């Protein structure tokens, strides 16, 4: 059954997901978990946050030189990802001190699917949310239109 991103709440909600979440980078699987949480926000595809301990050790580097602020979740810190001789800057993020209601994603990691070789929900390869700023994961059971598509900057 399809989920419309227009049925997601604002402010967003966070919920546990037991779906299999995988992230591939530089020919390696750097995440394989069924312990993710997803954040659901109006007009955005879900963003999956995986426990830090479910990320392969050594692939994340937190340079500490970039943060952004989310009105709902608080201050985000960014990671570079390095594996297999390849490195991409600021392609994953976390909330070390999330705001009230989002404590379950403290130190969990979200990945921009466009910067990875592939991201998977169960056995389905994810399509990245349009635009360079957003990190939503689009699967066949998620319908838009999505924030980030052309003409959506005022949403």
Which helices and strands occur, and which strands form pairs?
Layout lengths: L2 E2 L8 E5 L3 E5 L2 E6 L2 E6 L2 E6 L10 E2 L5 E4 L3 E10 L2 E9 L15 E2 L6 E4 L2 E2 L1 E2 L8 E2 L3 E2 L12
Parallel strand pairs: 1-16
Antiparallel strand pairs: 2-5, 3-4, 3-12, 5-6, 7-9, 8-9, 9-10, 10-11, 12-13, 14-15
Using brief descriptors, characterize the structure shown:
155 residues, mainly beta, Metal Binding Protein, Guanine Nucleotide Exchange Factor, Chain A, 5-stranded antiparallel sheet, 4-stranded antiparallel sheet, 16 strands, 0% helix
Word description of this protein:
The chain is an all-beta fold and 155 residues long. The protein has a single domain, classed as Domain of unknown function (DUF427) (Metal Binding Protein, Guanine Nucleotide Exchange Factor, Chain A, Beta Complex). It is 0% helix and 45% strand. The protein is built from no helices and 16 strands. The strands form 5 sheets. Strands 7, 8, 9, 10 and 11 form a 5-stranded antiparallel sheet that branches. A 4-stranded antiparallel sheet has the order 4-3-12-13, with no helix packed on it. The model has no long low-confidence stretch (mean pLDDT 95).
């Amino acid at each position: 059954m399809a989920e419309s991103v227009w049925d997601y709440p604002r402010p967003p909600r966070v919920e546990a997901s037991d779906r299999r979440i995988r992230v591939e980078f530089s020919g390696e699987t750097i995440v394989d978990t069924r312990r993710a949480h997803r954040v659901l926000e109006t007009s955005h595809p879900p963003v999956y946050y995986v426990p830090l301990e479910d990320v392969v050790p050594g692939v994340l580097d937190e340079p500490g030189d970039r943060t952004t602020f989310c009105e709902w979740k608080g201050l985000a810190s960014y990671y570079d990802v390095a594996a297999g001789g390849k490195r991409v800057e600021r392609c994953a993020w976390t909330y070390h001190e999330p705001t009230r209601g989002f404590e379950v994603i403290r130190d969990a990691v979200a990945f921009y699917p466009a910067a990875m070789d592939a991201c998977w929900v169960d056995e389905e390869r994810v399509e990245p949310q349009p635009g360079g700023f957003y990190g939503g994961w689009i699967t066949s059971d998620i319908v838009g239109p999505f924030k980030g598509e052309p003409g959506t900057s005022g949403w």
